[in-house]
């Protein structure tokens, strides 16, 4: 870098308007980054919530399926008992 370019950069860096513009650009970039990070965190939390709901629903379905099978067995048992009682009544 030549001495001419170095002095130009130094002069620009000392210029209050340039510093103000750099500061404004930094703040704008920082705001964009914070917005993206916030969106990422929000999306991640929603995903975790949705996964938990899916896990809870799967557990509930499994529990209901088990209960349904138990009730079907009980219905079969009661149907069989009813048929035996009907045969006794006919005799």
What does the main sheet amount to?
none
Globular, elongated, flat, extended or rod-shaped: what is the shape?
A: rod-shaped
Number of strands: 0
Mean pLDDT: 90
What structural class do the secondary elements suggest? mainly alpha
Q: What is the subunit organization of this protein? A: single chain
Strand content: under 5%
Q: How many domain regions? A: 1
Helix amount, in percent? over 70%
The DSSP helix count reads 2
Spans of 5+ residues with little confidence (pLDDT < 50)?
A: none
Describe the structure.
The chain is mostly helical and 91 residues long. The mean pLDDT is 90. The protein is rod-shaped and about 115 Å long. It has helices at 3-14, 16-90. Helix content is 96%, strand content 0%. It has one domain (3-90).
Q: What's the short version?
A:
By secondary structure, this protein is mostly helical.
Task: For the structure shown, list the relevant keywords.
about 90 residues; mainly alpha; 2 helices; about 95% helix
What's the SSE blueprint?
Blueprint: H1 3-14, H2 16-90
């Amino acid at each position: 870098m030549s001495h001419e370019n170095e002095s130009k950069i130094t002069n620009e860096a000392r210029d209050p308007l340039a510093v103000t513009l750099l500061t404004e650009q930094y703040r704008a970039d920082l705001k964009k980054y914070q917005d993206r990070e916030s969106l990422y965190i929000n999306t991640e939390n929603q995903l975790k919530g949705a996964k938990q709901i899916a896990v809870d629903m799967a557990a509930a379905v499994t529990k209901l399926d088990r209960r349904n099978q138990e009730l079907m067995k009980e219905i079969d048992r009661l149907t069989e008992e009813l048929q035996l009682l009907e045969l006794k009544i006919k005799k």
